[in-house]
Structure formats: structure tokens, C-alpha cells
Amino acid sequence: VHRGIGLKIIATYFVIFITLILIFGFFWKKDDLAPRQPINFNHQLHIQKVGLECTHCHKLVEVSQFAGIPPLETCMTCHKAVATDRPEIVKLTRYWEEKKPIPWIRVYNLPVRKYVYFSHKRHIKAGFECLNCHGEVKVMPVMKRVRQLEMGWCMSCHRENNGPVDCTTCHK
Amino acid sequence: MDFVENFFLPPSSDHLFLIKYLILLIYFIHMPFISLIIGGTFFSLFFRILAVLNNSSFYYRVSDFFVEKLIFRKTAGIILGVLPLVILTLIEGQVFYDAHIAIVQFLVYSTILVAMGITMVYFYEASIRMRFNSVVTFISGAGSVFFLFLGYFVFCVDSSLILDPGRWAVVKGFSDFLFSWNVVARFNHFIFTAFAVSGAGLLFLTFNWQETQEKLEAGFLKQIRKIAGGITLAFTLLQPILLFWNLVTMPAISLSESVFSIAVVVILLIFIICVHLYKILQDQRVKPSNRIFILFIITLIFILANDHLARENSIQNHTALLTSRALEVENEITTEREQLRAAAIKVDPNLGKQVFENQCLSCHRFDQKVVGPPYNEVLLKYSGDEKALEDFIRKPSKVNPDYPAMPQLGLSESEIKSVAAYLLQVFQEKQ
């Protein structure tokens, strides 16, 4: 009788942990890092093969708080003529003709954006490159978030580079 | 530590692929061995302290027994303990080439500390074997545990840093020493797994080696069985907590479905081990089978593979960058070579004539059949298309069924071009 109880306790204990891991796995969403976008835009292709700079499309990054998702016009300047028969470009053209914005899914979302002020312009002016925070986008066929975007991460970089470490710098 | 950075060359894409598996292999070899050393030394020292406190000869004997069974020869210590870390350092230098991170630096420190630890383990072992003064034994024992723990703490800092590419640019050395929850989780996981493996190892080496059992009296064996089984069960039961803790503290970028699935498999394996251990401790008649140790090694392999998977998830972007750069360099080299080769090919009428006389004349004439067809019949279709003739000479095929196939002549590019030009020129002159 005694032996049976011990085994039951061990079994319960293991079942609890397997459940915990499964629950954790269930709530962890892969899509948060590399969401499936309405159009399969390939950054690697546009940077490496076409030779575009980040600022060619993300025009606002140097002058605004946000880098900005390029408007459809930007895509269509080239894609009125280039690769118009590809399925993804056909999709793009449909959005253009219907005059609807593409419902892109935001990849870099600050966890609590409401409480954090972040400006792209400042960081570019201080001499940082896009890849410092966004990783090597030029080798990403699918855009993926590769940084944690947690406060500790911001702080360690601010300390390392003598950036302001006042609370009010980011929490206005 | 700039010299460390300068020491490495940028890896090629095939090389990176190979390295991935090489690292895993090194872990498989190194970890079980170092687990036995760490556990063996730690528990031997622990029972030695108990022996002094209780003034008991039994604990002395247990302490000696741990060292006797779990600390292998010195050559094993070098080959399985220190050498893998040195190789790992060299390999990581390639993987993190140009990532501007302290990975390699941390590994160098870790290797030095572990090497010191292992050296002291052998001092400890010798002092027990030769019955040195107990102060020497204690100092070397405590020293080895200290250096091994510190060495593997640095190792855990290193592997935790690898998981979070966001910190690579920030952490430049020990001044930015990491002390995150993930480091603590990893270190605990490492040490407690080592303890569990060494307990299982002791059971295995005591009860599955016939000679050992015959040499020792039943009473002592019974005690060893209790101690080793107890240690193994206690630290194995901690595994799910540690595994879960490690998963929760990992950066989101390291996780994937496979990481979770393998973690569940590991917990199932550990459950089987625990049931076995529980039976051994409950019932004296059940013989501790070698299955426990084998299951342990399999579990360890799964744990290491899972950790490696998490690591691959994290460094995916960096590896993609290195691969793309390597491809660029490879393409450059290929283009350069092709240009050089093209530059080296010369069309020379004298060479053409020479080849014609040495090779072609044995089968072909201009106006009569020999072995092959006469030129005035076949060259017509090539006039104005020198390239087609070159292609045919380079790789002849059977065209006319009345003649045997022309053999491949093994000519150089210059010879082919020269002879083709020569033939067409002569053909034109004769027309």
C-alpha cells in the first residue's frame, strides 16, 4: 500500500510539470515573432538582389518617431511594371486598385507602447544602424522579430552608449 | 582579447553546417564525463566533511568509494574534460565570427577554470589514494569543486548570452557580467543534472561490474545502494522544476514547438527513471539494473539536443548572415577564377595546326573517308558557328551511323579553340 502511494505522488508530480510545459507552449505564440503577413514581402530579395536601402521605403525613419510602413504608392512605383505576373504582386495590385491599405501585421511592437516613448529619429541621429535593433534584415526572407524589446535590454544599451537613463526619457 | 578575434577566419556555408553537428557531438562526449567528475568530487568531499564531523569511518569509506569509482584516469580527464572545451572555444570563434561578442572570451576563461578544477580533482584523488595529510585533501577537494563550479558558471553565462542576440552588442566582457535568471536556471540545471548523473553512474559502476560486487561485503553495498539511489532520485526529481525554469527564463526567440516537445519527452524519460529508482529504494530485492544509467545518458542527450535547438533558433539570423556572406565570397572567387581561366585561353593558329596533325589526322582527311567522315562533308554545317564545333570537339557524340563514334580527346580549352578556328579557316580556304 505504502509503495503505491509513493509512485502515485511521483506520477502526479510529473503530470503537473508536463501540463505546465504544455500550457506554456500553448500560450507562447510563434506568430508573435514572425507573423504571416497578408503579402509575402521578401526583405532579403529587395535588399540583396534589388539593392534597396532601408530608407528607400521606410522614408520617415530619419525625421519621425516612427519608421513608418511604406504606403502602397511606394510599392507601385516599381510594381506597376516589375514582376506584375507574380501571385504576390497580383495581390498587391488588387489592393492598389481597390484603394485599400494592406493590413500588415506589426512585427516590432513595444510590449506596453502606451507607456513607452520611443523615437527612431533620435536613435538614427545618435548614429545607430537599423540592424542594431532589427537584426540582419537583409538575410530575412520572412520578417522576424529578433530582439526582446524589454526594458532591461534598452537600459543595458543606454548605459553602454552613455544614453540618458532617466525614467522620464522613455516613460513620459 | 583582440588577438582571439584575429585568430579566426570567416567560415564557409558548408563549414557552418558541419560545425552545428560538431558542437552537439562535443557536448555528448564532454557532459556525461564532466558530470561524473563534478558529482564524484562534490559528494566525496561532502562525505569527508560528514566523516570528520561524525568521526565515522563509514563515511570516510563512502568518500573514498566515490573517488575510486567516478574519477577516471588522468588521460581521460585531458581527453574528455579539457580538450573538448578547447575545441569548442575554437569552433565558437568561427560560429560567432564578427558578432562582436564576448562568447569566445568567456569560453577561454571557462576552459582555464575547468582545467584548473580538473587538475585539482586529480590532486584530490592522489591525496586520497596515497593517504596524504587530511588538510591537503580538503584543500584540493574544496579547490576543485570551487574551480569546477566557477568554470561552469562562466560556461552557463556564455551559453545564456548566446541565446539572446539583443545583448551581444552590449556585453563586451566581465565588466558587463550577466547575472540573469536564465544564467541561474542554467547553472542549477547543469549542476543538479551532474549530481543525478554521477549518482546513476555510481549505481551502474557498483552493481553492474561483477568484480566490484564480489570484492565488497553485502552490508556496505546495501548502504551504497541507498546513498547513490537516494542522491540520484532526489536530483532527478528536481529535473522537471529546473527544466521548466530554464524554459520560462529563455528569451522568446529561442523557443519553438520542437523545444517544447523535446522538453515533454525529457520529462517522460525522467519519470521512467524515477519509477525505477523508487523501486530500488523501496525493495532491497530489486537489483539496480544498468537500464537506469543508459536511460540517464539518453535523457542527457535529449536535454543537450534541446538546448542546442534553442540555441540554433536564437542564432538563426546570425548564421544566415554568415552564410550569405560566405556565398558572396564564394561567388566572387568563382567569377574571378572563371575570368582568369578565360584570360588564359589563347587561340593560336600554330597550336591549332599542331593539334590537327597530331590528333585529327589519324581519322580525318579533307576529301576522303578514313575512320571518320571527310571534312568537306561535315564542316559545312559548322561554318560561321565556331562555338558549335568547339562544343562537339569538347564532347563528341555519334552523328552519322556509318562511322564509329569519335572519342573524347582530352584537349585543353586553348587547344579546342585553336583547332576549331584552324579547321574552319582551312575549310574556307579550300572551298
Explain what the structure shows.
The complex is a heterodimer of chains A (172) and B (431). With 172 residues, chain A is mostly helical. Chain A has helices at residues 2-27, 43-49, 54-57, 72-79, 87-98, 120-125, 130-134, 151-160, 167-170. In chain A, helix 4 crosses helix 5. The longest helix of chain A has 26 residues, at 2-27. Chain B has 431 residues and is mainly α. Chain B has helices at 2-6, 13-54, 57-70, 74-95, 103-129, 134-163, 181-207, 210-215, 218-237, 239-249, 257-282, 291-344, 349-358, 375-378, 386-394, 413-430. Chain B is built from 16 helices and no strands. The chains are: A mainly alpha (172), B mainly alpha (431). The A-B interface holds A 3, 6-7, 10-11, 13-14, 17-18, 20-22, 24-25, 28, 30, 32-33, 48, 132, 135-136, 138-140, 144-148, 153, 156-157, 160 and B 164-167, 169-172, 176, 237, 240-241, 243-244, 247-248, 251-253, 255-257, 260, 263-264, 267-268, 270-271, 274-275, 278, 282-283, 317-318, 320-321, 323-324.
- Tell me, briefly, the overall form of chain A: flat
Quaternary class:
heterodimer
- Strand residues, percent of chain A: under 5%
Give the helix proportion of chain A (percent range).
40-55%
Helix-and-strand structural type of chain A = mainly alpha
Give the number of DSSP strands of chain A: 0
Residue ranges of chain B: pLDDT <50 for 5 or more in a row? Answer: none
Rg of chain B, nearest Å: 34 Å
SSE ordering of chain B: HHHHHHHHHHHHHHHH
| Approximate strand percentage of chain B | under 5%
Biggest sheet of chain B: strands, sense, closure?
none
Number of helical runs of chain A? 9
Number of strands of chain B: 0
Principal-axis shape of chain B equals elongated
Largest sheet of chain A: none
> How many helices of chain B?
16
Structural Rg of chain A: 23 Å
Unreliable sequence segments of chain A? none
Structural class of chain B: mainly alpha
